[in-house]
Amino acid sequence: MGVVSVYMFPVPEGKSGQQVVESLQKSIELLGATKTGNFCVDCETFQTSIQNTQQRQVNILHSSDHPASCFAILDAGTCLVADSLFDGLMQKLKHYYQQRKGSKIESKGQRYEFGDFVFKVGSVSLASSFKGILLEIEYCPCIIAGDCWGLLKEMASSIVGNVAEQQPNVIKNKLEHVYTTADTMCQYLEHFNNYKKQTIPPTAVSTGR
Amino acid sequence: MENTFSVGLKHNIAPHQEFLLQGSILDSHKEVLLHRLRGLCDNAEKAPEPFYDHEMVFMLRGATAQQNPVLFRVRRSVEPRDDTSWHIRYLGTSEVGDKSRHTLVRACFDVACSNNVVQFLNEMGFKLDHEYCVKGYFFHKGRMKVTVSKIFRMAPSGGSDINTQEAMSHSHLVELSVVAPAGQEQIADDMKNFAEQLKPLIQLEKVDQKRLSVQ
Amino acid sequence: MQKEEKLLETSLPDIIAKVAEIKNAIASFLFKLENEYATLNWPSMLDNFALISSNMNSLSKVLKGERIPPLRNFTLFPVLLSPERDQELEKLTEGRLFMCNHEVVPDYLRTKPETDVEEKINQLNTKAGTIPSDNAQKQLNNLNKITSNILDIINSYKEEWDNESKQKTQQPQTSSQAETNTLIAAISMGKGLRLQSQISQQQMQQQMPNMQPGQKPMSVGKVPSTVKTTIRAGSHPYQRS
User: Fold this and answer.
1) How far apart are CA A136 and CA B87, in angstroms?
2) Can you say where in the cell this protein is located (chain B) (predicted)?
3) Are B212 and C188 within 8 A, CB to CB?
């Protein structure tokens, strides 16, 4: 496990998500990376069910790379890493925190390995409608983001271009600390929230909710 | 993606039901009990395994009637101090059942978690309800777990130094428990047989906690 | 005299019935010994003995009863001895005695000990008479001493055993139900633990309406000692009984 950066990969007008994913996969394969299976990161949102109290949210994320774990992230960014049995605990809180309908969002796709790097090309879907593409790049041998950011950025820019210049907030805040999977999950959550914000009106129409 | 939890529940392999018998032994007779347990349980050749835990009970309370308070018990090892020992335990209400069932049965979720759980629960709206330290010995025989432990109130200063803490009583609490998947009632018989072997030193019984709260 | 004879007559069938019972018990026991000696076990032997002895007891009770005049006041003597076979007698004794002759009468109608036994008794009596009274007193005292010593030993052992069994019954006092309840209430509901946390009394009362606000945790710890004394007090009557 190393340092990870997750980028949003734009889908140009007039192209389908599927086409963009395929071309992205092709360019990664051209680098010399090998396919090493599938991956999936999913996220469900629970929110306080009482109206007049302070609204709170708990986001529960799972990653196929860590099948026995569950990542619970609060609004403030506090991330609890727990056994996957934590899902059972959330059910016990159903009178306080209720699952928001149609909030399940996931990034799913191919996983590649290329030397010390791991790429994950995920197509994001919210309530089973396509929302966009997320590219995860991991540099495995290092756990201090500040020590390998340059390397990671260079690899990323060869695929996503200028977007790679932008440091994810999570990494920006803890360049000198040990990087953990919880930080990766926070990046995913940030992107997921962005997708939800962008697309709430169209989703509401297209899915009829 | 179907997570491991739901898969576990569906196939009924996730252990989430606790069978429990409880009792106590006066401090003066603790050694006799430990000696006997050592003989009865697995790993008789090793000295009893000590533990020293700190438990914080967090409560989430709501305003409406249907929002029964929910308790999460957060536990960690004080000695040896171990940051990976944090876990949350949720316990359902105990079912006493009829005479044919020999033990208490309650839902039980043990969830290991990261060490920021106290901050996390506070931000979720939980409040610390009470806390205590528990120090004692741990035995196991097959699936059965036996703990012989003393309960300590936290020192007013909040430190976890055992010397400044006040013991709850002159007895050690003895608990015999098994956490198993639902429906494995036969384990209760094994537990009863085991408890019989500890008589008359201690009486391990199903103690109705609701009855205690009325007293 | 007439009256006594009448009484005797009326009570004779009773005595005969009792004797017959004893006879039957002995007969069946003998039968068993002869025919079932291979399978006979000790408990059933004892049962048979017990049956016979209880029959003997009831017979002696009948004899001592008020309805029967003291038998020793009656004399029995043979009126006629005959070497002839007596059919009637044979029938009465179920074939054990065929005639009443010189040979059998001394055995059946004897009221004194046999002559050689009588001799032995006389010998002992004269021997006792020759011992000086001082000596006899000494021996008597010795015997009394030894007997009382043995009695003491037996009594002390009995006491010891009683104490041991008492201790065994007292063993359950290695645990206390009150303590168990205290501990379980503490870990399951935080009873007695919450007072020292930051939560205010008011809040606590809301959570635990059953707990008196003034209740100090110390009192919880003291409960077992009172329980112990009550148990001890309660066990005294049994020790005396």
Assistant:
1) 30
2) Nucleus
3) yes
Question: Are A85 and A124 in a shared domain?
Answer: no
Flag if B117 and A93 touch (Cβ within 8 Å).
no
Least Cα separation, residue C235 to chain B (angstroms): 17
Q: Does A89 contact B1 at a Cβ distance shorter than 8 Å? A: no
C175 with B215: Cβ contact below 8 A: no
Question: What is the interface size between A and B, counted as CB pairs within 8 Å?
Answer: 96
Contact A81 B111 (CB under 8 A): no
Instruction: Please enumerate, as own/partner, the contacts of B76-83 that have beta carbons within 8 Å and a separation of 24 or more.
Output: B76/B115, B77/B51, B77/B52, B77/B53, B78/B52, B78/B53, B78/B54, B78/B133, B78/B160, B79/B52, B83/B115
The answer to the question of residue B13 being in a domain is: no
Chain A environment of B108 (Cβ under 8 Å): none
* pLDDT tens-digit series, residues C43-87: 888 999 999 999 999 988 888 887 777 777 778 777 878 788 888
Determine the structural domain holding residue A134 and report its residue range: 3-39+105-196
**Per-residue pLDDT at A6 exceeds 90:** yes
For residue A133, tell me if it sits in a domain: yes
Total number of domains in chain A: 2
Residues A114 and A35 in one domain: yes
> Do the domain assignments include residue A209?
no
One-letter identity of residue C115: T
Are A and C touching by the rule of 3+ CB pairs within 8 Å?
A: no
Decide if B126 is inside a domain: yes
Chain B partners within 8 Å of A93 (Cβ): 60, 70
Predicted model pTM: 0.65
B95, two tokens: 């079912």
Q: Which residues fall within 8 angstroms of residue B27, CB to CB, at 6 or more apart?
A: B150, B170, B171, B172
- The secondary structure of A75-120 as a DSSP string is TT--EEEEETTHHHHHHHTTTTEEEPTT--EEEEEEEEEETTEEEE
The complex scores an ipTM of 0.85
Does residue A64 lie in a domain region? yes
Residue among B134, B154, B167 whose CB faces C196 most closely: B154
Q: What chains are in contact with B, requiring at least 3 Cβ pairs below 8 Å?
A: A, C
Residues A192 and A95 placed together within one structural domain of the fold: no
Residue B4 lies in a domain: no
Give the model confidence (pLDDT) of B141-194 as tens digits: 999 999 999 999 887 665 556 666 788 889 999 999 999 887 788 888 899 999
Number of domains in chain B: 1
Domain at B118, CATH number: 2.40.320.10
Q: Which of B107, B99, B76, B112 is nearest to B181 (CA)?
A: B107
Task: Give yes or no: residues A94 and A117 share one domain.
Answer: no
CB contact under 8 A, B3 and A72: no
**Is B213 inside any structural domain?**
no
Contacts of A84 in chain B (CB under 8 A): 3-5
**In this complex, do A78 and B116 lie within 8 Å of one another by their Cβ atoms?**
yes
